[in-house]
Amino acid sequence: MEQNGEGPGLRCSHGIAQVGNKIYSFGGELIPNQPIDKHLYVFDLETRTWSIAPATGDVPHLSCLGVRMVSVGSTLYTFGGRDFSRQYNGFYSFDTTTNEWKLLTPVEEGPTPRSFHSMAADEENVYVFGGVGAMDRIKTLDSYNIVDKTWFHCSNPGDSFSIRGGAGLEVVQGKVWIVYGFNGCEVDDVHFYDPAEDKWTQVETFGVKPNERSVFASAAIGKHIVIFGGEIAMDPRAHVGPGQLIDGTFALDTETLQWERLDKFEGTPSSRGWTASTTGTIDGKKGLVMHGGKAPTNDRFDDLFFYGIDSV
After folding, report:
1. Residue 128 resides in a domain
2. b/e string for 270-284 if b means 16 or more Cβ within 10 A?
3. Number of domain units in the chain
4. CA angle 140-124-26, nearest 5°?
5. 21 occurs within a structural domain
6. Are strands 68-72 and 75-79 parallel, antiparallel or unpaired?
7. Among 180, 220, 232, 268, which residue is least crowded by beta carbons within 10 Å?
């Protein structure tokens, strides 16, 4: 997509979310482990122009990387992320109608502080899963009810479920799906959590399966989870290096559990990981919105893509 104005530029490890005809971006890094800023950038889909949103209220106190962000209605929610010294942000909301930040949960009072976690939302809940804490990776799922303004610690996924960061997390038809991730190695298992029963289920998928990966772009579109790219092997220098990155767009049918490869043509985005992504709607079509990311050269991207889905 064409981009004009003052935007986030080259970066990875940030969060994006859509509200109406605007896409918002927060956090990220250009140099490994060095957060860039704490501006909230807003992209107007009508004018294709970026600007910096005015900020009032409890502006997050840290510039951070490895942060995630989701939207519910006209409100953005962001959790976690860390600075260069591994200090973490808490849980914030941003009202896009008033441009006001609110600190909803201080870092010491909410779920375990973390970065490179995953977030998703439905109409009433924000979900936070996994990630990398101060001491180790995490495998817990927490939900925040935006009506009651309370956190709920979901049941433990069990011993066979490994700690992980960089997983896909999407809400599809009332279930919270965890797709792949990194537990010290790239993994390819798929699970869902049923909030009504507070119960976890692991599923076996088939079809044209993407290989093990993490830190990929993802979106929920109807009954499908769509993913792009990611890391398929960790760099020997860990986060300082690029790792082995890949391209490819795949869709998982959460009813049949069959994978399909979608981009069977030229002109797809370059291989990348650590990109920011969200489910979006542009010109009446739903799809995957993706911004920036880390290149196989260890450079950063500043491009903005939309993969619209007619049918999967």
Report:
1. no
2. ebbbbbbbbbbbeee
3. 1
4. 70
5. no
6. antiparallel
7. 268
